[in-house]
Amino acid sequence: MKRVKVLVVGAGVVGLSTAVCVAETLPYCSVTVIAEKFSPDTTGDGAAGILLPKEFPDIPLERQKRWFKESFDHLLAIADSPQASDAGVYLSSGYHIFKDIPCDKKPFWSDFVLGFRYMTDREMKRFPNYKFGQAFTTLKCECLNYLPWLEKRLRAVGGQIIHEKVTDLQKLALNYDAIMNCSGLSSRFLLKDEEVYPIRGQILKVSAPWLKNFIRDGDGNTYIYPGIRYVSIGGTRQADDWRLEVDKEDSKGILERCCRLEPSLRAAQVMGEWVGLRPGRANPRVERQYLHLQGRQVPVVHNYGHGGCGVTLSWGTALDALDLLRQSLFEKPPQARL
Amino acid sequence: MRVCIIGAGVIGLSTAQSIYQHFHSRISPLTIEVYADVFTPLTTSDGAAGLWQPYLYDKGNVQETKWNKETFDYLLSCLSSPDSVKMGIFLQSGYNLCPEPQPDPSFKDAVLGFRQLTKRELDMFPGYSFGWFNTALMIEGKTYLPWLMDWLRQRNVKFYQRKIGSFKELADSGADVIINCSGVRSGDLQPDPELQPARGQIIKVDAPWLKHWILTHDSSSGVYNSPYIIPGSRLVTVGGVFQVGNWNMKNSSVDHKGIWEAACKLEPSLQLARIVEDWTGLRPARSKVRLERETIRSGPTSFEVIHNYGHGGFGMTIHRGCAEETARLFGQILQQKRPLALSKSRL
Prior knowledge:
The complex is a heterodimer of chains A (338) and B (347). With 338 residues, chain A is an alpha/beta fold. Chain A has 2 domains: 4-196 and 281-330, Rossmann fold, CATH 3.40.50; 197-280, D-Amino Acid Oxidase, Chain A, domain 2. Chain A has 10 helices and 15 strands. In chain A, the strands form 2 sheets. In chain A, strands 3, 4, 5, 8, 9, 10, 11, 12 and 13 form a 9-stranded mixed beta sheet that branches. A 6-stranded mixed beta sheet of chain A has the order 6-2-1-7-15-14. Chain A is globular and about 65 Å long. Chain B is of the alpha/beta class. In chain B, 31% of the residues lie in helices and 29% in strands. In chain B, the strands form 2 sheets. In chain B, strands 3, 4, 5, 8, 9, 10, 11, 12 and 13 form a 9-stranded mixed beta sheet that branches. A 6-stranded mixed beta sheet of chain B has the order 6-2-1-7-15-14. Chain B is globular. The chains are: A alpha/beta (338), B alpha/beta (347). Chains A and B meet through helix 4, strand 3 and strand 4 of A and helix 4, strand 3, strand 4 and strand 5 of B. Chain A: FAD binds at residues 166, 307-312. Chain A: It is found in: Cytoplasm, Cytosol; Peroxisome matrix.
């Protein structure tokens, strides 16, 4: 079969996962990743990387389950291997606590994490303002390690990298047989997808190596995630906020809320602050389109809009995107309408 | 009243603390002195990984189970204090793995969130088909002991770096009560055939991605002779061996190899971890903890000794319960010596 040239736009966790999936699975594909930002400057690099999904309103539940399960299982195998420290993937246990009892006490993903159960009364005693909690073991996948590790994997199967900002998909499509669009928040400009919007998140990096378990408030605004180099504490969820600068008021609020949950944090030293813009969208867009140019139909597989679930769903959506690519390479593209 | 404590490991220091807490307002003057040949960071306690966990089964030693639980509850209450980091106390969850089904362990109600391991979890540990998950406490000797010494110094407890040759030596110098917390070398003060060293060697490793302790249990090889991996606040402690009767304080390269290979099989990610150093310590192993009074005759007089030694591999785990019990025995001695003095005291 003739060599198929695939271009992946975006080198964040979704882009590199997608590129690796394609390059490792379809030997007849040459994969090139093109992006302006690479690790350590992608959105995922500042994310704590805890695998914890949320339920999207319009995607069939079975598909969402598959996205999460495949991501979890893929990363669990890495965590259980000698590669774990290189890839920055490891087990993380902790508590998910709620001030009010949630309607969904047992979310769809409870079967896919490890050891999911409700917290005992004794465990809840530590959190007097909270009425309910879930305890489980999930994975933490730190992009600062994982992205370079994925890049190595990509290069090992002949993948190429281009450091360049993409402004015109049509122009690029002239030189490739298929495009995987994993441009995250930038899809707003690249595709004029107004449904994509930033959800600003700020975190503090603190030195508190005695903390081993995560604590997350069910409202998503307060969390403590112990990592390899530091503990990430946060956070904020500011929709349509494009500011990349650190907000000192946000830092103050984060410290206050997290110290209330974990008093020993008062002894922790703040090492730094970071801001990232989650690629928000009502639902992630994992679907295929065709670009019609000069008599060719170029399949464009979209894989963007994961919000705060990029790391969490990266492998599962990459596999989905791979499937869409495979389908498009073997079926006849729709006739161009005149 | 002059109390002389022999030993400055976790047992000696916590005993000094309990005695001070219970009696400093009831006896005046109360002089507490600690005598030891080694202090932190050179004691046995300093090398301990610091995981609160008793042996799986107490073999009928319900007293010890009670003291263990008392210690856990005490440490849990310290967790919310502003001193918790300075004390070296923090929570950590982990896995106890067995090659085949076992009855529930003695500590299942003391720890937090105790449950059986699911099949998917066991799949991560080939060779182990059964086990438990729970959240326990860590108490790092290297941090806890200096904190205890500071606490005691602030309250005028005096420390003397000196190897005590005999109980009589201290009695002759005027000690009213002697408390023997001399751990593995208690035999030097009074022969005890039940007390033996149980040599342990550990490897300290830099592996900050590990956030759970993993203990394996193999009834054929015996407690702690099976691999264990216990992340601390800075380094990870990898073990272990439990060699009864071995007094050798030197690190053994044969043990190192055995420990390392077994641990890497258990946790493959360790293979890329940086090894920092080895350490050897002698656990003061005994069939059960010796926690009792003894009146020793010395010519026409006699003096009181309270023994508090033989805590094996669970000194950190049981220390507070034993310290409080020692304080209770001390109270008994006081009652006998000065019943009038005590009845006048404020409570």
